[in-house]
Amino acid sequence: METAARTAPAAVIVAIDGPAGTGKSSTSKAVAAKLGLGYLDTGAQYRAITWWMVANGIDVEDAVAVAGAAGKPAIVSGTDPANPTITVDGTDVSGPIRTQEVTSRVSAVSAVPEVRTVITELQRTIAAEAPRGIVVEGRDIGTTVLPDADLKIFLTASPEVRAARRSGELKGKEAADLASTQAALAKRDALDSGRKTSPLAKADDAVEVDTSELTLDQVIECVVTLVEEKRTVA
Ligand code: DC
User: Reaction catalysed (predicted)?
Assistant: First the structure.
C-alpha cells in the first residue's frame, strides 16, 4: 500500500533499567527527545511518595504505617522529556525529592508492596496513554511494570565510574567524597536488589549495555539504533 510509509509509527514502549549512576536518566531523556516519545522517571515517583511520607510525619521504617498511607498522595508526572515535572497534591516537588533526606529513605519506602502496587498502576496508566510511546526508566520496568515493552535495556557501569558520575551531580553541602558516594550507592543497590517485591533486576530479554567506557552520546546513539531496529522489524 502506497500510504504505509506515511503512516505514523506505532507507539513504542522502551524500558530502561539499572542502578544509579549508569546514565539512565540522561540517556532516557535524550532518547525520548530524539524519537519524539514521552519520558517517565519512575525513581522520581518513589522519591515523591517518600517525600510525602516524611512531610506527613510517617515513620518510613514502619512498613505498616507506610502501607496504610500509600494511596493518599496524588502524584502527577509530566512526561515531556524537555521538561519532566513531578507534583504531589499539586505541589512541585522536583527539588525536595533530590535531597539527602529523601535519598536515604527512598529504598525503605519503595520496598513496601502496597507502595509498589500504587506506583506500578500509575506507571502502567501513563505508559498506556502516551500517544507515540514512551521511554520509562527505573529498576523493575522490564521485569514487572511493562513486561511486554518493545525494547528493554539494562544499563550497568563499574562501581568507580558510577560513584564518580554521582559525585559530579551532587552540589554544595551534599557533595561527598568519592569513597562515601561509592559506599552509599552500594548500600542502596543492596537494598534495591535484595527486597522481596520486584527488586532491581535485568529482564531475561533485556539488552545489557555497560556504559563504563562509553560517552553519554555513544550510549544514546546505541539505544536510538536499537529502537529504530525494533521499529523496522515490527
Ligand atoms: O533512580 P533513582 O535513584 O531516582 O531512584 C530512587 C529509588 O527509587 C531507588 O533507590 C529505588 C527506587 N526505585 C524503585 O524501587 N523502582 C523503580 N522502578 C525506580 C526506583
Answer: dCMP + ATP = dCDP + ADP; CMP + ATP = CDP + ADP
- Cα 215 to ligand 1 centre (Å): 23
From first to last of its 234 residues, the chain has per-residue pLDDT tens of 444 555 667 899 999 999 988 999 999 999 999 999 999 999 999 999 999 999 999 999 999 999 999 999 999 999 999 999 999 999 999 999 999 999 999 999 999 999 999 999 999 999 999 999 999 999 999 999 999 999 999 999 999 999 988 887 765 555 567 888 899 889 988 888 998 998 999 999 999 999 999 999 999 999 999 999 988 776
Q: Is 169 exposed, middle or buried (0-12, 13-18, 19+ CB in 10 A)?
A: middle
pTM of the shown model: 0.92
Closest CA to 37 of 230, 217, 233: 230
Pocket flag, ligand 1, residue 43 (CB < 6 Å):
yes
Report domain extents, the chain: 13-229
- 34: CA distance to ligand 1 center in Å? 24
Indicate the CATH number for domain 13-229.
3.40.50.300
Distance from the CA of 198 to the center of ligand 1, in angstroms? 11
